[in-house]
Every structure is written in C-alpha cells, then in structure tokens.
Amino acid sequence: MKNNLLMRFLGWFSIGFVALVALWFMLAPYYNQVVFFSANAVFHLDDPLIAEVDQEQGVWLAYQVNGSQRYPVFEFDKYGTFFNIVLLLGLMLAAPGLTWLQKSWRSGVALLVLASLHTIFVVVQIKAQFINAGLMIPGSAEEAYAFNWLAVLMGTLGEQLLPLMIVGLLTWKTWLSAFQQAATQARKVQDATCTCGSGKKFKHCCGKEKQPASLPLAIANILKRGSLKSGH
Amino acid sequence: MNVRTSKLSDTSGIKIAVIFLATIGAGITFLLNPVSHVVQDPLEKFLAIFTGTVLSWFNSTVQVYDSTIVIEAFVANIVPACTGLFTTTIYIAAVLAYPCSLKRKLQGVVFGVIAIMLVNAIRIISLLVIGAYWIDAFDFAHLVIWQTVAVVFAVFLWLFWIQRFAHEK
Fold first, then answer.
1. Can you spell out the DSSP letters for B128-161?
2. What is the pTM of this model?
3. What are the extents of the domains in chain B?
4. Fewer beta carbons under 10 A from the terminal one: N or C of chain B?
5. What percent of chain A has pLDDT over 70?
C-alpha cells in the first residue's frame, strides 16, 4: 500500500506512454505543421525575410530566403524535434487527484505552452545555425553567443526539463493533496486498534517493530513541520 | 492561522524552487562550458569501454576506438549528450532542493547518480544492439523511447529516494 502513489504514477504513465507513442505517429505531422507555421509567422516579422521553414517530401527544411529564391540550409530530425510532447502528456495523465476533465484542460494548457516553447526553439535553432554558417549577421558578438547558447540549452537539457517544469507548475498542488490524503489514511491505520487483540494501537503493538518511511507520511511531516515552525 | 501557515508554505516553496533552479543553472553553466570536458571526455571513454566490453561477451565483432564503438557494421560515437549528465543534473537539483538533512541529500545524490549511470549504460548497450540489428528502429528508440524513459526513471528515483531514504534518522 505504501507504494500506491508511486505505482499508480508508473502504471498510468506506462499506459499513457504506449497510447501516446501510437497517437504521436498519427498526430506529429499536424503538430509539426502548427509549430513550423508559427515559426514562419515569427520570421515574417523580419524585414527582409531571410529564413523560412517548409516541407519537402515529408522532410521539414530550414531555407535561406534571398529575394524570390530560397536555398535549403538544414533539415529537422524526423523523430527528435518534438518528441517531448509524449513525456509532457504522459506525466499529465499520471498526475493524481484530477478528474478526466481537469486532466484534459490542463493538458491543453500544457500543450499550448510547450508548442510556444517549441516555436521559440525552432526560431532560435535556425538563427543560431544561420549565424554560424555566416548566412545571418548578428547585431553583436553577445547576440550570436546568446542564440548558440540558447539553442544548445533548449536542444539538450530543455528537452527533458521543460515538460517536467510545465507539468510541475500545473499539478504540484494535486500531488501535495494526494500525498496528504494518503498520509491521513496511513495515520488512521497506525492509530487504529491492533488486530492481534492486545487492545493497543497498531503503531504501539504489531506496527512498532517496522514502520517503513512512506512517501505520503514524509511529505505530510514536512507540511506539519512547516506549520509547527510558524508557532501553531 | 491559515494565512500564516500558507505564507510559510509559500516561503518553503520559493526556497525549493530557488535551490532547484540555481542547481540547474550551475549544472548547465558547467556542462555547456569547455571546462566540462575534464569530466565528459573520460566519462565518454569509460562508457565506450564498459559497453563495448559487455557487448563483446556476446558478439566477437565489437571493437572500441577511443569513444567510438563498432558492432557489426554499425558505428556509434559516444558524445556528451549520451553520458546521461543532463538527466543527472535534473535529478541532483531535485534532491538538493528537497528539504531534508545534508547527509541524506548526499546519500541521495550518490545513490541516484550511480543508478542513472547504470541505466544509461543499459540504454547505450540496447541502442548499440538495435543499431546493429534493427537500424530502422534506431532513431525511434534513441530519440523517443529512451529519452522519455530516462527522465521518468529520474523522477521515479527521486520519489523513491524521498520515500525510502530522505527521512531516515
């Protein structure tokens, strides 16, 4: 029982992961289209237009635009570009204490945030590559360094960290309340009369010898310590 | 009463967030700096030798050159992103940000880093096998499956550490 929350998290994530990977194959092309379309909208704010993203035979390419001519500069990964959407939605599905409706709208919000970040990533990645190839002149050396740094950051640590942070921000309260609920249940068991017939509380009888630290109790203790420190 | 308690909780939340983000920031600054090659280069070579040795027990064609592994006709180069250090950074930041004693945090870091490195070695071995025998599935396994599994493993490890070790006396 003590592993309930962890096991439920793993179980739901695994189910979600398998389903989302299958769905991802079908929906990724549409998602890519939205992100690359948004990135193009950002590039069209530049005057003159120097970069554009377009699809050719199923492959997304970044083009250098020069008047009415355009030249392919690099192509995006077939799988790698936006795979972390699976991680984001899987974690959202595994969040405890949320109804399906709540999970749905929160997933929608999370997806919008991630799509915006993906758009920024595409813009930054293209600008960094163009600057490195001498196709774009940065305003300053610092600007060139910033684009490169941001591109590497978003393409490495960001791939894993951003979904975690988005889900963390949207679900930390429900995680805490699930921990508290589980802790209350665990305490009820501890304070109940022992089933051996001694008349003592379980925690002072059969439960005395081994009381493994449980995640809900650990979190609840922290919350309790917080209240005690405030003088109540 | 509730107001004061929630104020205190908010402060704790801010402290946790600050420690987490500061550790991530320090980790990123280190990993993206050329100085990090002091750690990354030996780790890449170690991973190549370790995974190459394990695979050579089952396949006699395995050869290791520096941080490059050759198995059958498949050639793989261990690069900084393969070392698991980015996932490790997230895990370490989460452990350090969690409110418990320094001793438990250090234990959590050591225990977690070893576990993540082991899983990363398994990841590389499995990817090498997939690359050698099912090259069509390589990109998918590399970029979709293992990236997700690695980070979920780190989250699970962190929760497990809280449950099992963080509050032991």
1. HHHHHH-GGGHHHIIIIIHHHHHHHHHHHHHHHH
2. 0.79
3. 2-166
4. C
5. 85
